[in-house]
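Sample entry copied in:
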Amino acid sequence: MIYTHVGIAHLPTEYHIANFPKLGVQSPTCDFFEDYKNENDSNKPWYLCPDTVGADMAAEAVQLLYRKSKFLVNDHQLLARLLNEDRWKTGTLPKDFIRHVELRLFRSDYEDDNAHGELIASLRSLKCLENGASIVLNLELNKAWRGHIRAQKDEKRWEYRPADSGSGDTQQHAERDFKEKLLLKLSGLLLPVLNELKGSVYSIALRTYEPWWEFVLGKNENTETEVVAAWKEALGEDKKDA
C-alpha cells in the first residue's frame, strides 16, 4: 500500500477529458483514453502495470487515483466513457471510485433545444457516483459577439470581445443583461436533474468565470429565482436596483 501512495503522489491531480474538436483543434479522439489504448504502453507508470506489480496492486493504485483526482470534462458526451471505461485497463470500474467531476457546458451544448434530452441524460448518469462525490458545472455564458474571438490559453477558456468598443457602459449593461437572462433559462433546464442528483452525491455547484461566480446547491429544492438572486448579489446588482 505504501508503494501505491508514493507512486500516485507523482501523477497529476487533474485530468482533462477533452474532445479537442470542440475547442477548435482537429483531433479525432480523446487523448485521455487513446494515450492508453495499448495495454503494453511503455509510458504507463510501473505501479499501474499488472505485469510489474501484480493485478491486485495495479487495481488498488488505479482505484486510489480515481478517488483522489479531479476530472475536468469539456464534453458531456464523454461522461459515459469516463464513468465506465478504465483508462489503465486494470478491470476497475471508474464510476465506483470517482469523487470529483467538473463539467464545462458550452453554449453549443444547451442552445439547441433539440439536444436538451441528451444533455440531461448525460447529467443523470452522474447519479451512479457514490455519496461523497462533488460535481461542478462550469457554465459558458459569453455572448457570441461578432468580432474578434481569441483563445485564452492560460485559463483554458474562450473569451469573446465586441467588434467595436462603442459605449462601454452600454455594452457592459447589454452583456450583463444577456448573461442574466441566459443564466435564468439555463437554470430552469438544469435544476430539475441537479435537484435529483443531490440525493446521490455530496456537493453540486454551478460556476461561471466571466464574471467569477459560484452557487452551491442547498439541501432543499433549488429554484431559478434563487440562482439569479445569488448571481445579482455576487455582482452587486441587487444594490444597484434598490
